[in-house]
Every structure is written in C-alpha cells, then in structure tokens.
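User: quick one, fold this
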Amino acid sequence: MYKTNFQQLSDYSTVYIKLTLLLTVVLVNYSVYAADCFQRGDLDNGFCDKDNDLLADLPVESAKWQNPKILKFAYTPVEDHNIYRETFGHFMEYLEKATGKKVKYYPTPSNSSEVEAMKIRRLHIAAFDTGTTGYAVNLAGFKPMSVIGYPTGFQGYNLIVITRKNSSIQKMTDLKNQKIAHTSTFSNSGNLAARAFFPALGIVPDKDYNIIFSDSHGQSILGILDGKYDAAPIASDVFKRMIRRGVIKREQFRVIYKSPKFPTSAFGYAHDLHPALIQKIVGAFHTYRFPPEMRRTFGGADRFYPVTYFADWKIIRNIAQATNTKYSKKGFEALTKFETKQE
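Assistant:
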C-alpha cells in the first residue's frame, strides 16, 4: 500500500524544482554575498531573494551546496520528542529510500535552538511551528513546502480559548482580572494571535489581565485542570491530540472562542541543499501517504499538503506585523533569551 515511486513526482513538486533550477541558471552571474545582493527583502545578510518569493535562493556556487551523508530531521519541540520520533519513524525510512541517505531524528529543546541548528547546518529537514517559521525562513534559510493535510487541503488549526467546564467564565470579557496563561512570547496561537485578535472582542491582554507564561500548550492545558490558570489561548491541534492520547477529556473543558484557521507547523528543508537532493526530498514529501497510526496521531490527515510561505503564511505575517514582531536577529535574540529563562 505504501510502495515508493520516486521517479514520478507530483505536478506541484516537479514545477517547483524546475522553477528553482531555472532561476539558478538565469541568475548564475550574481553572487549571494551581501555586497552583491540587491534583493533580499527581510532575509538576513548572506541570503538573496531575487525571485521575490520571500525565501532564500539556492546559492549560485555549487561549492556551497550541502550534500550530507546523513540527513538530520526534526519535528517542532512543542511536544514530547520521544512520541514524535516514533510517529515519524516510517516516514524517515521512506526518506532514506527516496534519497539513498541515512536519516536521523534530531531532537531540539526549544524553537530557537531548532532555528540555530538549521542555520549552522546541523539540521537539514524540519518542521517549525507556525510562529517560529518566519525566523527559520529569514535567519536560517528554511524553505517551507508542506503542512499536514488531506487530498483537498491542509489541516490547519485555530487559536481556541479554553477554561474548565465548571468555570464561571462563559465569554471573552469574563477573562478580565483572571489568571490567564499564554504559552510563550513568540507563539502564534499561544500569544501573538491572542494579542492581535482579543482587543476586538473586548479584552486586552496585559491590560485587562496579567499574562502568565506557561512555556507550552500542554502546560497551559494541564495547568487549567490543576487550577493553576483560569483560562488560556492554545492551539486546537495540540488540544485534540492530547484528547486522542487520553491525557485529558474533552468534557473537562469549555471552549469560549475559536479563531480563523492557521496553517500548522511548516515542513521544509535548508535552502542550500544540493538541487538533486532537494528534488528527492520534495518528491518524498509529496508522494508519501501516512500509515494508520500516523493518521490517528494527526486526526485523520493522510499526507503532507503543499503550501507556500508567500501565500499560506500571509495571515501569520500579518499577525506579526500587528503585534510589532520582527523576524530579525534582534527578535530572535529576544526569543532565545525568553526560552533560556524558561528552562
């Protein structure tokens, strides 16, 4: 049922790779060094974006292309690595057959350390959580290509605000003067989207209530059950997975708000991998179909659905802009300091 056909890529991946290679040929006379790059947008020095897709271009000089013997793969550190090392085990075997290379799971303790790992070439293929993707793109040359999804679209998730079922909190304005947990400063659904959306709902974080940072969506959820927090904005996909694993029960909570749909963690690769290797990686992502256990883990999703950072992350970039969040070195330093303080 899960036979590999690595010679036939999906239409999307074929067009994507051909376009990438074509642009490389057209731009062969340009240097990727900062002094010679006249088009980089918000990307860090050392990257170029001559095609205006907001992503780092493949380096022109082939000597700069990575072609490692062992590919390192990481899933976002939002939840237990031991669980997801096993969850993605079958997919990593598929990647090995597609690329002809050994693939190892590379656990990272924080979002900032995951970005840093790709930046210094210790990480080659990864999933970055929604709020961290912008830092990975701008500072580490990450190229998002897919998210968890179905034949007709990506799975997505929402910011939901939860409280205990027996709580007196019934609507958003009831959050005033309560103990409200946000996950971390740089989390999309756990903080930034809340700051962007809540004022229009009659409640202003840091003004109508003091924010308590829990460090993760799971900690926020469990903290509500323990009475440590009265309510929390969290990611709906994490909430659903904890219910499926039996960690919590749906009937223990009340959901008082649900946001528009966001893309989930972005899967992609380092921009400077060898083009032939990129083609094999993209092909593996777009032809792989989840085995039953993986479908259960991800709520019935059965594939990696193709997305673009330019179009599908626009809502996230708008939230970042609304909250004055910069996907820059300065913003990344603040993220690193925050996560170090939470350890």
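User: anything notable?
Assistant: The chain has 13 helices and twelve strands.
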